Amino acid sequence: FRCGLCKQACAFDAVKETRDSYFIDRQYCQKCRACYQACPIGAVKVYKERHVVLMEALKITPEEVETIERRVRMKLKDILEKKGREVITVSPETTLSDATKLMSEKKIGGVMVVDEQGKLVGMVTERDVLHQAAKGVDFSSVKVSDVMSKELVTFSPEDDIAEALATVTQKKKRHLPIVEEGKPVGMITYRDIVSYVLPEVVYMAEEIY
Asked: What number of other Cβ atoms are within 10 A of residue 172's Cβ?
């Protein structure tokens, strides 16, 4: 039922219209309650515009949107605690063959490279392996140090999930090394973040496909 009386009653243009409904944008709302008084069925709700975008795009309820927002305010350590803090590393002298076998055994898409002091110095990912395979190199004769990525984007366990998600999206990274004092304490992937923030959506996608 969309009569539009709430939009007509608002003097501040705070009532916005979407394809399926109206909502009050908190950015413009002056809390005069004119829209509440105009609505004959008491259906007026106050949402942030980004909440409405999520509700329409993902077909989820306002309560689910609020849950998602709470999750993105949490820390990366919360994902680590849920996933487990197993730290899988190799040394720069490890052959690419051994590193690839380790990634296959552990079912991971990347492995961190540490020096003798346990400091993070690089990372080898599936992409690095594919590039070398395309060149036809002998994995058993190539060291990890020869192919690893050295310019890494690292995070602290105390970093916000939202901040990390924004960073990896902008920089197009799929693996997030989590470090303390330069030493890795865990690894989080882009999928880990999505699964933590949007588990319902991931579940629905897996059920459909």
From this structure: 7
Q: State pLDDT tens for residues 97-125.
A: 999 999 999 999 999 999 999 999 999 99
In the chain, the amino acid numbered 159 is D
Look up the pTM and report it: 0.68
Same domain, yes or no: 103 and 30: no
Nearest Cα to 194, choosing from 208, 172, 178, 174? 174
Question: 183: helix, coil or strand?
Answer: strand
Q: Are 157 and 187 in contact (CB under 8 A)?
A: no
Number of domains in the chain: 2
* Contacts for 84-87: CB closer than 8 Å, 24+ residues apart: 85/185, 85/186, 86/186, 87/112, 87/184, 87/185, 87/186, 87/187
